[in-house]
Amino acid sequence: MDIKAIQPKVTTLIQKAFSNQKLTHAYLFSGEPGAGKKDVAFWMAKRFFCLNPIHNEPCMKCTECKRIDSTNHPDLHFIEPDGQSIKIEQIRSLQREFHFKGVESDKKCYIIEHVDRMTVQAANSLLKFLEEPNGTSLAILLTENKNRMLDTIISRVQVYKFQQVSSEVLYKNLLNEGLDPDAAYLLSNITKSVTRGKELLEEAWFLNAKNLFFNTLEEFANNPFGAVVKIQTEWPEVFSDKKKQQVSMQLFAIWFQEVLYSQLGRRVSLNEHAQLIEHFRNHFLINDLVSILEEVVTAKEKLRSNTNYILVLEQLLQKASLAA
């Protein structure tokens, strides 16, 4: 994964801090899910321990970098919520660890994910910990909701705001991970996280869902009634919960946007399905496609309001059938 491409501003600031030897004892990475906070945190930890940094980046080859990759570094501690929250005993355990010197050097680092989910007791304990920094320690706190954190904690850390990763950057990173172009394009528009995109691809569910979706489109092109039957009989089992049903709506949005791009003479990305895109382009006017995309947005809202999934799909296909 190209960390610097995902968050160029933050990684540049981190490199400058190392270069100028002005590393702060504690950092807060704040941003939306999928913005790369955890990936950058471990990248920064590697640079902190790295034996042979190159241009203020971790070399990725030394024993320190490799041990962090394998989550087997004795002086790097990672904390995440135990259930719904981070509890005081987790912070106390961390404090006990930091009373001792590092196993192989004086350096120690800890990363706390979802730091905003700490209990009040845990937050107060962490605050005291931050007030007594060890000159050779590094704290990296991660949050998706900075507003839920104590102001006294925020005032004691260097805050880095992470920007939402663009679909274009995600697409390139997913290609670099070895995904085929069509899968990379779909996933870069469904999720804003390279990690989540890879996880979805590895799940048998997503591959089944993708195949069912395109099979249904092909059926619709030849026999709209057959597509309705397929939706009624096969879709409920595959798109079986609210999150998966929202993914199906995202797939519809991506598809009709591609057809619209084709109508407008713009470059399309789903090249594996170029013939099917051409078929739809020949049967839908630009205004029809815009109307269908608006219907997809409405369908998403209906699903959030617990409207029956099959009813929402039937209404969407009916809109498309009338337009065709």
From TrEMBL:
Entry-linked Gene3D superfamilies: P-loop containing nucleotide triphosphate hydrolases
One BP term from GO: DNA-templated DNA replication
Top-rank EC class of the record's enzyme: transferase
InterPro entries for the chain: DNA_pol_HolB, DNA_Rep/Repair_Clamp_Loader, P-loop_NTPase
EC number: 2.7.7.7
Entry keyword set: Nucleotidyltransferase, Transferase
GO molecular function: 3'-5' exonuclease activity; DNA-directed DNA polymerase activity
PANTHER family recorded: DNA POLYMERASE III SUBUNIT DELTA, REPLICATION FACTOR C / DNA POLYMERASE III GAMMA-TAU SUBUNIT
The name this protein goes by in its record: DNA polymerase III subunit delta
